[in-house]
Amino acid sequence: MLSYRHSFHAGNHADVLKHLTEVAILDYLLQKDKPLCYHDTHAGAGLYSLQSSQAQKTAEYTEGIGKLWHYQPQSPLLGKYLDVVKQLNPDGELNFYPGSPKIAAMLLRAGDQLQATELHPSDFPLLQSQFLQRRLTRIENIDAFAGIKAMLPPLVKRGLVLIDPPYELKTEYQDLIKGLQEAYKRFPQATYAIWYPVIERHSIEQFIAAIVATGIKNQLRIEFNLHADSPGHGMTGSGMLVVNPPYTLAQSLAPALSEVQQQLGNPASHYQIMQLVGE
Ligand code: SAM
């Protein structure tokens, strides 16, 4: 049963980390004058109203994008990310927040491919409606891992695959590792960006260790913890595990995350960027 709806969480601190990383990777890939493919395995609804009853109920965005909205960034990457959100809110009020496929669509060139899978029966039509005018776009209402088999490798042999499950079920951790291995076998040139929550430190370290144990080379770990580890108190932070990161990724994210920590954080907040497996 699919009970997770991203509309309750859009724009929270985890989205800030995930989408900053996405912008950094796409920004690097877009420097080359060759088409790329963006593939989003768990795409969500694409665009979120922060005035919706769901967003207002949790108000999670007020602890994320809400704290950056009036901030003047120093780091070019944080500036690019905030510009994307500003484009959707031209009157200067923070009313809308983009999901990962929408961010990609706003950055990609007309000749780049966009692919996404989303299983939820209510979020899928919302997602699809965002991309009706876009060519070179394939949006499917199928399981993420069926999508990996059906849609990868793409015709163009460079790109980004974002893997962002809701982790509602314990089995999703193992499924992700199998899905990553399958995708990597099909499309080894791609950059893979996997989001993970920090809820219970020991279990997440086991999950990371299992990804490292796949033997897939060149893995970078990026993590932003809003609070100190605290089992039983929900999500205290989140991370991105990036396979085949652009060589500029750590360098561009570090100053952006330092500013995010200053704006969102508290004395217990911290971030880390660490090469887990070499090239
Ligand atoms: N990536 C989105 C973003 O950053 O804007 C948010 C995605 S949200 C964390 C996870 C999404 O995965 C939900 O919309 C959920 O309906 C969808 N989902 C859950 N299980 C799935 C599956 N097996 N295959 C495809 N989508 C799935």
TrEMBL record:
Q: Which residues form the active site?
A: D164 (proton acceptor)
EC annotation from Swiss-Prot or TrEMBL: 2.1.1.266
Which UniProt keywords are given for this protein, alphabetically ordered? Answer: Methyltransferase, RNA-binding, rRNA processing, S-adenosyl-L-methionine, Transferase
The residues listed in the UniProt record as binding S-adenosyl-L-methionine, with positions renumbered to this chain, are H19, H42, S100, E118, D143, A144, D164
Q: Where is this site: Interaction with substrate rRNA?
A: Y4
Q: Which InterPro entries has this protein been placed in?
A: RlmJ, SAM-dependent_MTases_sf
- Is Methyltransferase a UniProt keyword of this protein? yes
Quote the Pfam families the UniProt record gives. RsmJ
Q: Tell me where on the tree of life, at the top rank, the source sits.
A: Bacteria
Q: What class of enzyme is it?
A: transferase
Listed GO cellular component terms?
Answer: cytosol
Catalytic reaction annotation: adenosine(2030) in 23S rRNA + S-adenosyl-L-methionine = N(6)-methyladenosine(2030) in 23S rRNA + S-adenosyl-L-homocysteine + H(+)
Q: Which PANTHER family match?
A: RIBOSOMAL RNA LARGE SUBUNIT METHYLTRANSFERASE J
The record's comment on protein family reads: Belongs to the RlmJ family.
**Assembly:** Monomer.
Please give the name of this protein.
Ribosomal RNA large subunit methyltransferase J
Which organism was this protein described from? Alishewanella jeotgali KCTC 22429
Q: Which gene encodes it?
A: rlmJ
